[in-house]
Design goal:
By secondary structure, the protein is α+β, with helices and mostly antiparallel strands. The protein contains eight helices and eight strands.
Length: about 220
């Protein structure tokens, strides 16, 4: 079986791959099936946000001209007022630490909206590679993302800590989550300040190279 390769894809290529991307999301997150159509719509909308950037980890197809099999993906964009996630988290941070505290992390953020690797492809550095590729060279001052609080120690949490992220907002439930979806809404916000030019966006350790891909 061929090894997955990281590829940067533009908005059109992301939308063309949205079905397999959503399949990876479902396998990794195991959400209720009724939530997937809404997630599809959210991902479509995110491609219109400023500074949208996306990478996929794909196993190359043996037939020329065909896309490979998506086994992981990550995307993000420039966070700004008027975006739902940004506004909800900004409000929560301001309530807990004041407006200056919220502005420190969310005035100029790169928001990592989704980062997932199919369970069958985990444990091979794809998540680290996707995160590093996505953040590398970004002009924003901070990088922020949220993750589930299913248990204290998960591969995702270990990855984020290993690249210098730390808890910023814990024991938080996003609005609109009912009792049945509570476990999917309790998240921790992680943040990462931009490093020096020589190391910015480059997590420790080796990661697969990424190539630009627009088809």
């Amino acid at each position: 079986m061929k090894e997955p390769k990281l590829r940067e894809i533009d908005e059109r290529a992301f939308l063309r791959r949205l079905t397999p991307i959503l399949g990876v999301y479902a396998a990794a997150m195991e959400p209720p099936a009724e939530q997937l159509p809404g997630r599809h719509t959210i991902m479509e909308r995110h491609t219109t946000y400023p500074g949208f950037r996306a990478f996929v980890a794909e196993r190359p197809c043996s037939l020329p001209g065909l896309n490979g099999t998506v086994v992981g993906f990550a995307y993000g964009f420039h966070g700004a007022r008027g975006q739902w996630w940004h506004d909800v988290v900004h409000h929560a941070l301001a309530e807990r630490g004041g407006e200056e505290h919220a502005a420190r992390w969310l005035d100029d953020p790169m928001e990592v909206a989704e980062l997932h690797v199919h369970p069958d492809a985990q444990g091979h550095g794809l998540g680290r590679g996707l995160l590093g590729a996505l953040c590398e060279g970004r002009p924003e001052r901070t990088v922020v993302l949220s993750t589930l609080e299913r248990r204290p120690d998960t591969p995702a949490r270990r990855l984020y800590r290993s690249v210098g992220m730390e808890d910023l907002l814990t024991d938080f439930e996003f609005p609109g989550a009912g009792r049945a979806t509570r476990s999917w809404a309790e998240r921790s916000l992680w943040r990462r300040t931009r490093r020096s030019r020589s190391t910015r966006g480059r997590p420790a350790g080796r990661r697969p190279r990424a190539s630009r891909w627009t088809c």
